[in-house]
Design goal:
This protein has 231 residues and is of the alpha/beta class. It is 33% helix and 24% strand.
Length: 231
Amino acid sequence: MELAINVSDLNFSWNKNSSFCLSIVDWQVSCGQKVFLYGQSGSGKSTLLNLLSGVITGYSGQLKVLDHDLQALSGAKRDCFRAQHIGMIFQQFNLLPYLSGLQNIQLAQYFAPQQKTKNNELLGQLTDKLQLSKELLKQSACTMSVGQQQRIAVARALINQPQLIIADEPTSALDSELRDHFIELLLSTASESTVIFVSHDKSLAAHFDVQYDLTGLQQTTNMEPAQHDVV
């Protein structure tokens, strides 16, 4: 079984005086799996995502992402790895407001220029699937509706055909209808990728293959799935 994420004996704290310590004894995610992570504020969700994406290092133990030890890479190589292999979707989508929809999507190409030819071929397929018209792609992000910004954020995350997609509370500001539509859109468009989706809202878990509870992770020593094969 090929693994997208392989964690063992992982320990991380911000500094020696910090009361927070993220400790995971054993956790694996298979390639292509759609994973839901939930937990209360302060349980370590964002910290774990930052470790998985290589934004922060300084941990002990093993953490491999797509069979790469990110801590062993230089900062520049981690940035390059992230641009080529990981798609990020943020809580507020993080679109640059005065850039067009197309320019926001193409920001990912800037950090992974070797993907540009492939990206240009994929762009048309993505915009069709996400119903992004040529007129909308020319429009500034700040003039778009929330639903339109969602679709631009998904296209930007997928344009490099990443093997891993990390979504950090991207539905927290949405009503239930928009929230469910966003998740369905993301999962259908990212069908070939591994997806790690974080939220404090347990009701979203039914969309995913498996869910993990991070609440109280600091008090536990193992990260067991709360439920397998959620339908």
